[in-house]
Amino acid sequence: MPEQDPYAWLEDVDSEAALAWVGERNAETVDALTADPAFEGLRDAVREVLDDTARIPYVVRRGPHLYNFWRDHDHPLGVWRRTTLDEYRSPAPRWETLLDVDALAAAEGVRWVWAGATVLRGGPPRALVELSRDGADATVVRELDLDRGAFVEGGFRLPEAKNAVDWIDEDHVFVATDTGPGSLTDSGYPRTVRRWRRGTRVGDAPVVFAGAADDVSVGAWHDPAPGFERDLVVRHRDFWHSEFFLLPEDGEPVRIEVPADCEPQLHRERLLVRVRSPWLGQPAGSLLAFPLDAFLAGERAYEVLFTPDERTVLEEFTTTRSRLVLTTLTDASTQLHLLSPEPGGGWSRSPLGEVPPLATATVTATSPYEDDETAEEVLFDVGGFLRPSALRRVVAGRPGVETLRRAPARFRTEGLCVRQHFARSADGTRVPYFVVGPEDREGPGPTLLYGYGGFEISLTPLYSAVTGRSWLERGGTYAVANIRGGGEYGPAWHRAALGARREAAFDDFAAVAQDLVARGITTPGRLGASGGSNGGLLTGVMLTRRPELFGAVVSEAPLLDMVRYHRLLAGASWTAEYGDPEVPEERAHLLRWSPYHNLRTGHGSPPLLLTTSTRDDRVHPGHARKMAARMRELGLPCEYFENTGGGHSGASDHGDAAFLEALVHTFLWRELGEERRVPE
């Protein structure tokens, strides 16, 4: 690519010229793919899955109520609602609607999308509700009276920004927002935290903490643990390094002196630290517990709660009032463990429920701040590629596991099986991957390989009725690659593909693709690559570096211009993950694999489908726009679809999501359903 970017004009998101170009590309893609005889039935099948009223309504507890946000055919934008545990146990719970987003959107003429809520503890029935305009990351904040189901007149309210708020008490909140020049970081997130009192202007609220312009963001929250109430603030210096402080009401913030790449959490009288690099003689990936007061006084005595090994790592941990729940990964499959403090010191450890092999268990909610037995309540979900989810409840310290809800089977699994294989990457690293498909297939068939490989995010076996109906039921095979850059083997697995070492993630994905072919599961002409966001970068690299491995590529909400990504929306926040293009040696490694800069003719290219959203304010739609324009210039096969709303997810309701999924899978089946010759 020349230094002067001929398609920079497509970065102007809402310009008349750019939107006209988007309209033309959308029309071409929609006309081509919706003409497929299978498209309409596929879209309807996906919509049926998404709207299924028998799916599990996942909940969180606040006092006696369980809260849930729900979308279906009658409520495309959704309702926020609550019920009780006794009602939730019944086959048809009665729900109390707190906010009908569809009705609000109709009344105000704005396509509001639910972005979450924070319920006040220990005060009047109030919540801070966040709503985004058509799915963007930026939100508005409004205070809602839960008993009346109405916004509070003169209550807390914030205009659209990348807001962060948390209750302190009924009359005060911590707020990080855009208050004018100098209040945002270079990444576009809040740089200051204010303590805002009811009835005053947010711009007049005192600043209690300020970060630097080149930080990613700052934030604050109130810890309401009974007897251990305190305020905390975090300064995110970059994506992987942060500083945490206790925030006294009077006086200067007190730094919690842990390494900047650690993940500290306060749990009553303890400081829990997940170690991301070796510290105090313990390896990366360990979980340590310190007496908080002694730690603040300079002592460093600790208990080891978890130590990783070559195959098993700590994925996450959460707390009840007095206990911890550890989620561990062994070769990318999960187990849950309950840690309980012993009266004489130390901790006992026991399994939390039964988790079958090649499955995923996820803690969906705990209630550490409640006043009764629910303070020890744990809700967790268990499922797998072919196993619909089951939501279970445990009260730690009491016997028995209760199954609260079971999701229905939403696609046929007869003749399908799940296997785990290991590929050898270019440097000899053993890379796991899952394969879901026909147990007794005769010969290779259409296969879709999904990957992510970044930000220490792990891919585990999950039940997807959309994938089942769109791909597996039609005879396709689905594979998930657990490549470096993810968290499947802890911090070291992530760091192995950080910055200039990103090549490892690309080599791993290519190795899995080659292993699928070597095992006779598929051929290059019938193998597709799919990924979104960072995974869209991954598939873009496959398109430009290893086109001979794939018959089709899907890249959704992708990063593709790795020379300018740091100047587009939130891109500056990811330089610790990829490298900084302003640093010459880092720019050099980014240029080596930046998909936008490595497009060329003469080496062939598998067909590409690019999708994005005009309202994606995280990964700029200019990445996908410019890639499509450049491919058209070079005569390379590319189809493009940009949803006008939906934010980073690409869809703001089930109708949009079903349409997008139908486009993607129609494209994939058209390209991979029959044997094709791949580029040489």
Keywords summarizing the entry:
alpha+beta, Rossmann fold, 8-stranded mixed sheet, 5-stranded antiparallel sheet, 37 strands, 20% helix, globular
The rounded Rg comes to 25 Å
- Assign the CATH superfamily of the domain at 8-35 and 443-672: Alpha/Beta hydrolase fold, catalytic domain
- State the helix count: 13
From the N-terminal CA to the C-terminal CA, the straight-line distance is 22 Å
Structural class: alpha+beta
Strand content: 25-35%
**Low-confidence segments:** none
Main-sheet strand order equals 30-31-33-32-34-35-36-37
The helix content, as a percent range, equals 10-25%
* Main beta-sheet strand count, sense and barrel state: 8 strands, mixed
| CATH third-tier fold name of the domain at 8-35 and 443-672 | Rossmann fold
Mean pLDDT: 96
Spell out the blueprint of helices and strands:
Layout (H helix, E strand, L loop, with lengths): L15 H19 L4 H13 L8 E3 L2 E8 L2 E10 H5 L6 E5 H8 L3 E8 L6 E8 L5 E7 L4 E2 L5 E5 L2 E6 L2 E5 L15 E6 L9 E4 L6 E7 L6 E9 L2 E6 L7 E2 L7 E5 L2 E5 L12 E5 H5 L6 E4 L5 E8 L4 E7 L2 E9 L5 E5 L8 E7 L10 E8 L2 E9 L6 E5 L9 E9 L5 E9 L8 E4 L14 H8 L4 E5 L9 H5 L7 H16 L8 E6 L1 H12 L6 E5 L18 H4 L5 H10 L14 E6 L8 H13 L3 E6 L10 H19 L8
Parallel strand pairs: 32-33, 32-34, 34-35, 35-36, 36-37
Antiparallel strand pairs: 1-2, 2-3, 3-4, 5-6, 6-7, 7-8, 7-9, 10-11, 11-12, 12-13, 14-15, 15-16, 16-17, 18-19, 19-20, 20-21, 22-23, 23-24, 24-25, 26-27, 27-28, 28-29, 30-31, 31-33
